[in-house]
Amino acid sequence: MDSQAETSGIAAEFCIGQKIVYPSQGVGIIQNIVEKQFKLEKIPYYVIYLEVTDMTIMMPISKALELGIRAIVSPEYAEQALQLIGEAFDPIPSDWKLRYQMNYDLLKKGSILDIAMIVRSLFHRSQVKDLPIQERKLYDSAFKLLEDEVASSLQKPKEEINALIWSRLTPQADQPDQVVQIDEQQE
Q1: What is the pTM of this model?
Q2: What is the CATH number of the domain that holds 171?
């Protein structure tokens, strides 16, 4: 089958061997495009390997865009995300439940810039006060997603990207006046 095949009338958006991002799951690679019989219909599927969880999944091609599957960003866009984590930012709510929901919604959208915003805001919040467990997990997931996608985009080792992210985050950590806290009375 051609890697940019059209099967059962549905055009495959991605090619075999192409790296993709599955929001909330991480970077994956399209290993194959196969057809599976479901009831009386043949349905084309992507076979995607997710390295971070060492898992292979099958996803109907018709559902891929709906689920937010997208190509790895360009190196320029990856650089933009790295630049974003080092910039000053708007105040974040002090209520962790509200913060968590805002950041979780951004994570589900799956844009690398949204993920960079989550990493930046939760890192700086963690410098003020320890994050609740759920928020810490969200931060860790966002950090890993950012690291994986930037490493894939820039074709650099994850260790190098990890160090680069930390170098962009920590200069602001030394300048606490840039982190502004919103009190419940002000909201």
Answers
A1: 0.79
A2: 1.20.58.1290
